[in-house]
Amino acid sequence: MKFTRKLPQKAVYWAVSSRDDNNVITYAEGVEISCRWEDNNEKFSNPSGEVVISRAVVYVDQILEVGGLLRKGGLVDVPNESDSDFSPTDLSDAYEIRGRGEIPNLRATQFVRKVWL
Questions:
Q1: In the chain, what are the helix, strand and coil shares in percent, each to the nearest 5?
Q2: For 78-106, what is each residue's pLDDT tens digit?
Q3: Taking Cα atoms as reference points, which of 36, 16, 45 lies closest to residue 28?
Q4: How many domains does the chain have?
Q5: Domain span holding position 104
């Protein structure tokens, strides 16, 4: 069974494209991805090993980087993204990816990937 059939929702993902000396982050252009979004509080370990609680768990079919931003809905739902001064950090419902994980199937031909927001 293909896992991607179980991802009925859409989200917009902004990857970190650069970080300057003052730790100011620039994000790449948003891309629409398939997902399953669960507004669920779940304990997880962040990259520094600290146990924290998520605001949502999102299952995806590709690798998403910690530090990127994720927003529920499609690209058409993002207001003002075409504006030259647009930043996804201006959106109150775009959340930082704070952790990620993946589990392979028995043959390691497919992976269930999830991120914690």
A1: 10, 45, 50
A2: 887 767 788 899 899 999 999 999 988 88
A3: 16
A4: 1
A5: 3-116
Cβ count within 10 A of residue 55: 13
* Minimum mean pLDDT range among 6-10, 67-71, 106-110: 106-110
**The CA-based dihedral angle spanning residues 87, 93, 94, 97, taken in that order and rounded to the nearest 10 degrees:** 150
CATH number of residue 60's parent domain: 2.40.10
Interacting residues of 26 by C-beta distance below 8 A, sequence separation 6+: 16, 17, 18, 19, 20
Partners of residue 105 on adjacent β-strands: none
- Give the pTM: 0.88
Q: What is the pLDDT of residue 2?
A: 62
